Amino acid sequence: xxxxxLVFFVCSPHSKxxxxxxxxxxxxxxxxxNVRVDGFDTASREPLYALFFPERTRVVDLDEVKGxxxxxxxxxxxxxxxxxxxxxxxxxxxxxxxIAEIGFLEEARRLCVEPIVLxxxxxxxxxxxxALVLKTTWPDLTMSVIHNRGASPLGRNxxxxxxxxxxxxxxxxxxxxAPMARALDDVDLSLSRFVSEPPPGMSLVVRAALKAWLLxxxxxxxxxxLRLELQSSEFLR
Amino acid sequence: xxxxxxxxTRAAPAKxxxxxxxxxxxxxxxxxxxxVAAPKGAARPAVIxxxxxxxxxxxxxxxxxxxxxxxxxxxxxxxxxxxxxRGTLHRFHPDHTMxxxxxxxxxxxxxxxxxxxxxxxxSVIDVRAGGLSPALQALDEIGFFDAxxxxxFRFILLHVIGPSISSLExxxxxxxxxxxxxxxxxKNHVNDTTFFEWDPQTHAKYFEDVxxxxxxxxxxxxxxxxxQVELCGAPFSTFVANxxxxxxxxxxxxxxxxxxxxxxxxxxxxxxxxxxxxxxDEKRR
Lengths: 237, 285
Prior knowledge:
The complex is a heterodimer. Chain A is an alpha/beta fold.
C-alpha cells in the first residue's frame, strides 16, 4: 500500500465559522498519536492558530509570492507527515486562485501528496456555493465539511443546508458550554496532552466536559484517516 | 532625441514610394545572387523580427517566449541577437542564437543568405533597442522585402510597444517597411506595464498606413518568478522542467515554476489565437 502525505486545507470564505478551532483539533489529534505535523497559518496579521503551536507552525502571507513559496513548496514534500493549513477567510480566494494558477493539485497527485479540503459550513448560501465552485473546478478533490455547532450553528435547517454542500463526508464539532469553551482559549492548553494528562489545576467539571467533547471529535478524525487508508489500498480496489 | 540614421516622418514617405526599376534591379539581383533558392515544394522560410525603437519594453522576453513556443510546437528555429557584443537572448538560448550586427553586410549574409539552406525554417531576430527602423531599412536595402513580396520568404514583425504615445510614433516610422509583413502589435504586460486606451481617433491616425494582422497581449508574470528565470539563465521551458541552464536537475521553487508554466501557456494561447502557427507552418493551414 502506497503511503500518502495528507495535506489539509481547513477553510471557509467567511469569518468566525470555527476554522482555527478545527485546524487546532486536527493538529492535536495527530500530536496525541505522536505523529509529527506541520502547520501553516495564513492569517499573517493575526495568526491565532500559530499561537497554539508556535514550534510547528509557519505563518505565511499568501499575498506575497515568498509566502506562497513558503507554503506550497513545503506542502509538496512527500514525507508522509500530515500538513495542516489554517486558511484565513481573507486568504481564501487567494489560496485557491494560487492553487489553480500554479497547478498545485496536479503536481500533488504526481508526488503522492493528497490534498483534502475541510470546508467549514455556515448558514449562508454563498458558503455552499463556494464549496460547489471548488468541487466543480476540481471534481477529484477530496472534500469534507465540518459543522461546528458552537461557532457556526446551522439551526433547524441543518440537514437542508448540509445537503447543499457537494461533499461526501462530514465532521461534527459539538457545542461546548461557555465556561468550557473559555478554557479552550488558553493558548497554553494542549489538547493532545490533555487527553492523557489533564492540567492538575483544571476544574474537574471542565475536565470531564472537555474530554467528553474532545474524544468523539478525535474518533471522527481517526475514522476519516482509516477510510482514506482503506481507499488507497491496492487490494481493495 | 537621438537622430536615427534614416528618419522617416509621418508626413513625408509614410506611404513608401515605389522604388524605380533602376533602384529595384540591384537589390533583386543581389538577393538572387546571394540567397540559395529553396527546393520546390519546400516550406518557405520565415523571418520573425521582434523589435521596438523604445527601450525597456521587453523585446528579448518576447523573443525568448517565441523560441519556447516554437520549440514546444516542434518547429525548428534559430535566433539572431543584435545586442552586440553581449546578447541577452544569446545568454538564454546559446545553442540556437548568433550575435549579429544587422547593419554589417557580413552578418546580413549570415541571416538572409542561409534562410533557404538552414535546417531551421524560422529565424527569429531580436532587434536591440532603437534598432528597429535601421534594421528594417537594412533589410529593405538588401532586397529582403522584395523577396518577401515575390513569395520567397515570409516575414513577421512583432512590434513591441510601450505605453507612451512615442510607441505610436514608431508605427509611422516602420510603416513603409511592413506592407509585405504580417505585422503584429505586441502589448507586453510582463513587467506590469499598464496601457491606457488610446483615443480612437489618435489611434486611427497612426494606423492609417499600417494594416495589422492582430494584437498580441503578453500577460504579467510574477516579478519573483521572472527574476528567478533570469538568474537561472535558461529558457522559460527549461526552468519549468526544473532544470538548470546546462540541463541538469535543479531545485527551483514549484510555485515559481507553476507561475512560469501558466504564463508560458497563456503566451502560447495568444500566439495561437493570432494564427502564428499557421503563418509559420503552411501544413497547418
